[in-house]
Design goal:
12 strands; 38% helix; alpha/beta; five-stranded mixed β-sheet; binds pyridoxal-5'-phosphate
Length: 389
């Protein structure tokens, strides 16, 4: 595809960044495993000299992801955490970050256990009220970092309003768009400086790759991130780039199915007598419902809920499930269920978990694209086991 302008997302997901291989006519992007590329003379080459600096399969993926996010530049990494780290490495000692309070546990760990010792400070807060974000900005703040929908409480933050705060303060806004994907939400259109992804999740979609990406239209930031990608070296393998490219082709159909399945399950859970509370932005009673409806094309495939009966009931529930695998991660075609307090969010201090509402009865679902009534039956089996415990 020569110019991605003017095409719809479903078309971009299949064609952007890619064109038939000129050497063979192969329709699908080749996996170029070469670590080095021949030069006609010193410094005279076709744009690639060494695979850490640049690789054709990676270039195709970066072009596709950038087009999907409406960004000029795509920079990919060996994991979502490597992408996050590269963004933080654009800052320097003494800088400050304002961070959402309910971010991915690994993101919190990078701030708390890695960047802090290099002199980067951060303030975590609930960003539901943009005025509070503005109030948290200090003279040395350089970046606002948020996730929406957040993990695992599925809070919704108003990207456009927080982008306004960022612009007025002259700081960058990074949105971790892993949960929504560009099919449901495009942070750059709403004023964010960059969209950050764990491509491990929905973008690849088949739970068989770990990867990350940053998408931005800021030329200077992109240049710095490309420099860090090459210099620090957290690059994805050509094979993994190919896998994500392949997964992206069905992103549109998968996301529509994830949303449809999750909507039905959220309704079902909200009527169930063993469920104390459901967190899903698609439900009218969710505090972020209106903002979510405005900035998203669908509420996504992630649901959290509080099961009656605490840890014992939650354990019995998770053990009894047959289709939902009890596992960390999310965004694959298969359904997963997990216990945030013990699994994904164990790296958060207990007080922080309590403040967020991550209790012993909280269960997080990644609703896959299996048959909806089979999924519901599976959850019924879990509820029965929790009752019988
Ligand atoms: C998984 C995840 C990450 C980290 O990505 P990895 O690919 O596991 O390094 C970051 N943010 C969110 C929202 C995630 O779900």
């Amino acid at each position: 595809m020569r110019d991605p302008q003017g095409f719809a997302l479903d078309t971009l997901a299949i064609h952007a960044g890619q064109s038939p291989d000129p050497s063979s006519g192969a329709v699908m992007t080749p996996i170029v495993l070469a670590s080095t590329f021949v030069q006609d003379g010193p410094g005279v080459h076709q744009g690639y000299d060494y695979s850490r600096a640049g690789n054709p399969t990676r270039t195709a993926l970066e072009g596709c992801l950038a087009a999907l996010e409406g960004a000029k530049h795509g920079i990919t990494f060996g994991s979502g955490c490597a992408a996050t780290t590269a963004v933080l490495l654009t800052l320097k000692t003494g800088d400050h970050v304002v961070c959402g309070d309910d971010v991915y546990g690994g993101t919190f760990r990078i701030f708390d256990k890695v960047m802090k010792q290099w002199g980067l400070s951060s303030t975590s807060l609930d960003m539901s009220d943009p005025a509070k974000v503005a109030a948290a900005i200090k003279p040395n703040t350089r970046l606002i970092w948020l996730e929406t929908p957040s993990n695992p409480m599925l809070k919704i933050f108003d990207i456009a309003a927080i982008a306004d705060v960022a612009k007025k303060a002259g700081v960058m806004l990074a949105v971790d768009n892993t949960f929504a994907t560009p099919m449901l939400q495009r942070p750059l259109d709403l004023g964010a400086t960059m969209s950050v992804h764990s491509t491990t999740k929905y973008l690849n979609g088949h739970s068989d790759v770990v990867g990350g990406a940053v998408l931005t239209s800021d030329d200077a930031l992109a240049e710095r991130l490309h420099f860090l990608q090459k210099s620090v070296g957290g690059v994805p393998s050509p094979f993994d780039c190919y896998m994500v490219l392949r997964g992206l082709k069905t992103l549109g159909v998968r996301m529509r199915q994830h949303v449809e399945g999750a909507r039905g399950i959220a309704e079902f859970l909200s009527k169930h007598e063993q469920v104390k509370r459901v967190y899903y932005p698609g439900l009218a009673g969710h505090p972020g419902h209106a903002v979510g409806a405005r900035q998203m094309r669908g509420p996504g495939g992630m649901i959290s809920f509080e099961l009656d009966g605490g840890l014992q009931a939650a354990s019995a529930f998770l053990k009894a499930l047959e289709i939902f695998a009890c596992a960390e991660s999310l965004g694959g075609v298969e359904s997963l269920a997990e216990h945030p307090a013990i699994m994904t969010h164990a790296s958060l201090p207990a007080e922080a978990r309590a403040a967020l509402g991550i209790g012993d009865g909280l269960i997080r679902l990644s609703v896959g694209i299996e048959d909806a009534s089979d999924l519901r039956k599976d959850l019924e089996t879990g509820f029965a086991a929790a009752r019988a415990r």
